[in-house]
């Protein structure tokens, strides 16, 4: 809402800066301006309109007819100023707009200039702070600050008396005025922009849907590879477990083989002892035979004693033979055990070699798969937390 306005050098208002400028205070909800013809009522409305919109009244040319005529004062230059203070309708701030003008009187013509336009805003501490805007920007901003559209200011609130009959204009002019007042042109343009924007967004959505489909397919492939990798990891863990079991079994077999080897060594020693004993028996038998052949006289012992001695000798020989047979049987049994353990050991070594080959092939495939996954992640900008941490999962 407008609080007050001061006018100096506009129309018939005194342009002399030494004289006090004319000030008008406005009240709520209504301010009535009364006066005789020529007292300046229309000039006040024109000044309000110019202060708000920057437009000059009709019939004033470029604005020179709106400023006090220098020829009346007998001067070559007249300066004019309009100051209007109001409350912003959007931010409820107290604002002051100052518009200054100048007319120079030349020999045969007048030159009009709009000097500067200033907008001041009252801060919280009560000081007035100046805001720097271009003139064209101020002409747009003041109606926005006041919360009233410029066509309403021009055609309704501050309508000039020469344009007050515009509701009786022809249909085209009337339509244009109402379009300006109700901003239908802007509304139509806004609808066109919305349609254009929607069309572009639909294209973008279709484009992104295609990209999403591709990304979904790529994500599906990545999920499949991740699942395959998970299965391969499980297979690797199984193989590693089997390898550990085989290593443990191989260690047990090696321990058993060492025992068998020691048994073989013991059997070999027993075999050597058997051969030695056999040789001794044969030697003793030959010695007995030789001694028997050399006997020149009969034994003095009776038959019973000789029979007892022969039986004892035979018993000792039989014991030696039984020992030889038992040792040979033990040797054969130990050889069978050694052969069985050697076969199991060779089977274990062969199976371990196959598992080592499988592990090597799996690790090579795993490295290839990780390289492919990382390449696709970089190529399609797929975050690693979507595909799984393939690089540090092992």
What keyword list fits this structure?
single chain; 394 residues; Rossmann fold; 8 helices; rod-shaped; Rad50/SbcC_AAA; double-stranded telomeric DNA binding
Question: Explain this structure to me?
Answer:
13% of the residues are buried. Among the domains are: 2-164, 3-Layer(aba) Sandwich (Rossmann fold), CATH 3.40.50; 183-266. The model is unreliable at 390-394 (pLDDT under 50). The chain has 394 residues and is α+β, with helices and mostly antiparallel strands. It has a 6-stranded antiparallel β-sheet with strand order 2-1-3-4-5-6, covered by helices on one side. The chain is built from 8 helices and 6 strands. The longest helix is centred in the middle third of the chain and has 110 residues, at 184-293.
Short description, anyone?
The protein has helices at 41-53, 70-73, 135-146, 150-157, 171-181, 184-293, 303-380, 384-387, and strands at residues 2-8, 22-25, 77-87, 94-105, 110-122, 128-131. With 394 residues, the chain is an alpha+beta fold.
